[in-house]
Predict the 3D structure of the following.
Amino acid sequence: MDGVLTGFAIIGFVIVVGYVIQRIRILPADAPVVLNRFVFFIASPALLFSVLAKADLRVIFSSFLLVSIGAIAASSVAYVVLSRIFFRRGIADTTIGAAASSYANANNIGLPVSVYVLGSAQFVAPLLMFQVIVMAPILLALLDVSTRGHVSVKSILLQPVRNPIILGSLAGFIVAASGWQIPDALLQPFILVGGAAVPLVLVTFGMSLAGQRPFRAGAGRTEIVTASLLKSVLMPVVALLLARYVFQLDGVHLFAVVVLAALPTAQNIFNYAFCYDVGTVLARDTVLVTTIASLPVLLVISALLAPA
């Protein structure tokens, strides 16, 4: 438990540093954009490649991934049902709400949590890949149909291929599956560059929180609260039940899969909502609320499930 608290303290401190940097304007106004692009296109792919190239693929696939998929399905379906009964929103708004309820921040928060709390970035990789390869194309297809009346099939199918994080992860999986032991002189540059990913994503995330004002009047507060509760509470509970009673996971694997289910909503959802001009306030405020809620939720999970 001390190690878990230390991990969260490190993550929280670096996020606060980023927040302060943005508030007192130490860096140029476009610094978050530049730092995010470096992390997305260079540092995170290098980190995931270096970690997954040495990973045990039997651990991070099979029942571990199935639990995550089950929790995602439960939360997103629950939002769709509630939206249909109570909110009466259109397909596009409901799609954004369902995504906000189930699409985890596996990169900006998931990577640091996986490294500092779970001990390895390999745990978050399957979830990250599933979201980008499966969930994102489905989400974009629904938004295309509901807002434009047609689907850009080429754009949707090519999206995972254009994602450098997926390419880095796939390269790592291929190396691990082949059994090739990469020479240390070749692997060390990836480890060195990848080491910048975690601190930079935390700093830029802290910078993004500066100036946020959630729950403004007329912003669909009921939908925001619903999506936030589903993401922060229902998903980890479903993950716990599936992991323990259906797939009989225990120890670090049980702890890891519940922690990943409790990650906050990904900022990608706000990006998608902004691009399609639908559900932007819902997406933005759910990202912020679940991010704030994730710390106490993860601390409770750690107290109950963290291996001794």
Observations:
- The longest helix spans residues 221-246.
- Residues 181 and 245 are 37 Å apart (CA to CA).
- The two ends are 7 Å apart (CA to CA).
